[in-house]
Amino acid sequence: MCNEGGQVSDETEQLQRDLDELREAVLDDWVLITARGGDALRAFQNTFSWRVTRPLRVFRRFEKRVHEIGFVPSSQLAAAALARKLGKHR
User: Fold this and answer.
1) Which listed site, 39, 76, 86, 87, has its alpha carbon 20 to 30 Å from 24?
2) How many CB atoms are closer than 10 A to CB 78?
3) How far apart are CA 52 and CA 22, in angstroms?
4) 33 — alpha (psi -120 to 50), left (phi > 0) or beta?
5) Burial of residue 66, with CB atoms counted within 10 A of its CB: 0-12 exposed, 13-18 middle, 19 or more buried
6) Contact yes or no for 65/77 (Cβ under 8 A)
7) Residue 45 and residue 61: Cα distance in Å, rounded?
8) What SS3 class is residue 55?
9) What is the pLDDT of residues 33-78, one digit of tens each?
10) Contact assessment for residue 33 and residue 41, using Cβ atoms and an 8 Å cutoff
11) Are 66 and 58 spatial neighbours (Cβ–Cβ below 8 Å)?
């Protein structure tokens, strides 16, 4: 799938390096936020981007769990968690 001397491979490697750098930056930020205590963490979780991406994070956790333990057990755990959450808000 390479063309002209490995161009696709070079682009893939560059994208992987860029992704690794972004992950490292997010991890560094997370370490700083958690080290500062609860107020900084709450401030971070109240940002627009954190709230908007929450459904994506929830889905990603569910997807990982499906791969680990299967769809039915994952669905049962998700339903139980939802029931607990809804019970708290009543």
Assistant:
1) 39
2) 15
3) 19
4) alpha
5) middle
6) yes
7) 17
8) helix
9) 777 777 777 777 888 888 888 888 889 999 999 999 999 999 999 9
10) yes
11) no
